Structure formats: C-alpha cells, structure tokens
Amino acid sequence: MNYSVIAYSTACDVEDFVASCVDVPKFLGFCRECHNYGNNWMCPPFDFDPLDIWRSYEKIKLFGLRMTPAREGGEGKSAAERAKEIISKEKRRLIGELLEEEKKIPGSLSFFAGSCELCPVCAKVTNEPCRRPAMARHSIESLGADVSLAMKRYLGLDILWIKDDRLPEYLTLVAALLLPR
C-alpha cells in the first residue's frame, strides 16, 4: 500500500507534560477495558506508580508520524486492515529509531506507540518473564498520558478515525523519549 509519512518532533519539560497531559486514574480506567490489561508486561496493572517514572526525568521528546494513505490501492482489504498494515510498518521503524536514540543518550527511556507487540503472545499470559526485556517498552498511554491531547498540544496533530470503512485523511502514531536530569 502506498502512503507518505511526515515526521514531527518537539521537546518540553516533563513537569509541564505531566501537568497538561497525564491523568493516571482516567487512562488506567481505559486500559482496564483492553484485552491487554493484565496480559502484557508493558500494560497495566503495574506494581509501581506511573508518576514515579514520569518524575524521574527532566525532558520529554515527542515523536509524531502523520501517515497519509494513497487513495487508490488496498483493494479487497477493509480500512482497518489497511490502517493496521501502515501503522504496523511505521511502528516497527519508529521503535528501531527510538532504541537507537536511547543508545546515544545514556539514562534515556523511550515509550512506544500503543501496546507492546514484540512477541506474538506475551509471556505474561503464561506467567513467564518478558522474553525481550531489552526491547520492550511501555506506551505513553499505559502510563496515564492522553495521547490525543499530547498530539494536539505539542505536535499540532489531531487523531482521525476510520468512518464507514473509509480511511481518514491521515493516520497518526506518537512515541516519546524521556531525557534524564
């Protein structure tokens, strides 16, 4: 499927980000409704307070992707299937870039877009330790952040949704890199 990508990034103080975009009780409530809740090591419930992670860092660098699908192509696939194809490909690429950034900045920590999908079935389901702890990361939303608000406030992007089996004008992903004090 053909599509174009525009990358956005910005940095701000974690304190400002938390004050404006993080509401742990609200977003953990949404997480409870997800099939990954309790079934993915990177998803809630956690044995720690997500705010402790946020407060351990000074800056946050947000990375947003705006992926604009070509209007033609994707015949025989639903809009959801086409969106997943694009998002999965770009998410894998973004994860690689974030892990490289972590290597360059000691003490930094990345948060990926959406739930961890590194393994076909998370080891948590069978009560085993994470199989890929060197690569697995939490998502911004799993630690209580409002992704829609963060994208709008810091990157100037709205999240658009599929309607009537039609792709929106563009798809979005957001990830972050927390920078040490």
Tell me the number of strands: 4
Spatial order of the strands forming the largest sheet? 1-2-4-3
| Content of β-strand | 15-25%
Number of helices: 5
Q: First CA to last CA: what distance?
A: 42 Å
Strand-and-helix sequence, N→C? Answer: EHHHEHEHE
Percent helix among the residues?
25-40%
Radius of gyration: 16 Å
Pfam family, one: DUF2284
InterPro entries: DUF2284_metal-binding
Protein name: DUF2284 domain-containing protein
Walk me through this protein's architecture:
By secondary structure, the chain is of the alpha+beta class. Helices cover 32% and strands 19% of the residues. Strands 1-2-4-3 form a four-stranded antiparallel β-sheet, sandwiched between helices. The chain is globular, with a radius of gyration of 16 Å. The mean pLDDT is 94.
Task: Report a brief summary of the structure.
32% of the residues lie in helices and 19% in strands.
